[in-house]
Design a protein that fits this description.
67% of the residues lie in helices and 11% in strands. It has 417 residues and is α+β, with helices and mostly antiparallel strands. The chain has one domain: Outer membrane efflux proteins (OEP). The chain has a 4-stranded antiparallel beta sheet, with no helix packed on it.
């Protein structure tokens, strides 16, 4: 078990630097790079890893013997013996727990470290989702700014034509004023969108915990989705489930520790007594110091604390089992709602794409009619607004789809990612 943790400590840096690519299948290359930056700099993720490292430091604590006891005594009134007076005593004692106790304690900590490492993996996977949730609104903002700018240019061309129609008495001044009002609205919307960039960028950089030069792709990767066909065991390898599974095993190991600690402890010791020489007679071994090995055994007769420790471990096992079932239920609920959201956005994207095409064709026909007759200008503006609306809705659906895809990737993620 210890060898596994030495191995984990070595490779975790590689996990931090390289593992982001495993969950980036539905994202673009710019976002992949931001995943890497977030993994390297996000304070919440770094805190999770530090907590894992802290648990690793408990391994040598759990597998170490108790400190030996050294006692020194000086006889104020020397005890007279046949070979001389006892002047001082030195005692050294080392207690040893029952066989297998230290190994059992080490296993408890090792399993706790496994659970903490799974929590770190979950935080890493969740971070991808958080980065995507902050990145894609910036993509939407860029799209909306582009749409509004194009709309302003189109409306200005409408205004120019309306003015010419009015000058030639084939149009109305109302048409000019109407399009002028729309231009004013659109320019205001554009200004608001530009102001919105700062808070969105700040939120994004705070997730990365680093200031970056933002690069946003012009278009997203092909938007497609294939639902996982195997759901019964879909969440078994999710880091949250794995973390609770290791906690269950740790509680089982803690129960074995309670049993071991309820057994006697064995102490080995050595007494050394300094003996002074007798001056009143000559004796063999006169003044010879005394060396006395000792063995001691603890008597764990007060069983309440050991029974309580064992019961505590059993109750924690039941608690973690219930938590695991609750997490599975929550993951299942989130999975179904996320799949629904993904499929809904795909349906909306298809709808908006069709509507954009239809309104574009309709607008072209009505515009030709107005250009030749000067009639139906209000209808031209109405269809133009519809065209604008569907383009904006399409951008929103793209963003919602990509964020939901990243959440889906988190939900089906496992500790091997």
């Amino acid at each position: 078990m210890r060898h596994r943790y030495i191995y984990l400590t070595i490779v975790t840096s590689l996990v931090l630097l390289l593992s982001f690519s495993a969950n980036a299948q539905n994202t673009n290359s710019d976002l992949d790079e931001y995943f890497k930056i977030a993994v390297e700099n996000n304070p919440k993720l770094q805190a999770e890893y530090k907590a894992y490292e802290a648990v690793l430091q408990k391994l040598p604590q759990a597998s170490s013997l108790a400190d030996p006891n050294l006692s020194i005594g000086y006889f104020i009134s020397p005890v007279e013996t046949r070979v001389g007076p006892q002047l001082a005593r030195f005692s050294l004692t080392q207690m040893f727990p029952w066989f297998g106790t230290l190994k059992a304690q080490e296993n408890v900590v090792a399993l706790e470290a496994e659970a903490r490492f799974q929590s770190f993996l979950d935080a890493r996977n969740k971070l991808y989702w958080e980065v995507a949730s902050q990145y894609y609104p910036l993509y939407e903002l860029k799209k909306l700014v582009q749409i509004e700018k194009e709309n302003i240019e189109i409306l200005k061309s409408y205004k120019s034509l309306a003015e010419r129609k009015f000058s030639s008495s084939s149009g109305s001044m109302v048409d000019v004023l109407r399009v002028d009002i729309m231009i004013d609205d659109t320019e205001t919307n554009l200004e608001i969108l530009k102001q919105k960039e700062k808070p969105l960028l700040t939120a994004f950089q705070n997730v990365l915990n680093k200031e970056v030069e933002l690069e946003i792709s012009e278009d997203l990767t092909p938007l497609n989705f294939e639902r996982s066909l195997v759901k019964d065991s879909l969440f078994n390898d999710h880091p949250l489930i794995q973390s609770l599974e290791y906690k269950i095993q740790s509680a089982e190991a803690n129960e074995r520790v309670a049993q071991k600690q309820g057994l006697p402890k064995i102490g080995l010791g050595l007494d050394y007594v300094i003996v002074g020489e007798r001056q009143d007679m000559v004796l063999a071994d006169n003044g010879k110091d005394v060396l006395m090995p000792m063995v001691s055994v603890s008597l764990p007769i007060f069983r309440k604390k050991y029974n309580a420790q064992k019961k505590e471990a059993q109750l924690m096992q039941e608690s973690y089992e219930l938590q695991k079932q609750n997490v599975k239920n929550q993951l299942d609920t989130d999975y179904e709602s996320t799949v629904f959201e993904i499929e809904k956005q795909l349906e909306l994207l298809n709808l908006y794409q069709r509507q954009i095409k239809k309104t574009e064709n309709t607008l072209e026909i009505i515009w030709k009619s107005y250009s030749s007759s000067g009639a139906d200008f209000e209808e031209v503006l109405r269809i133009q607004q519809q065209f604008l609306k569907y383009r904006k809705l399409k951008a929103r659906a793209e963003v919602e789809f990509c964020i939901s895809i990243q959440k889906y990737e988190y939900l089906i993620s496992n500790s091997a990612n």
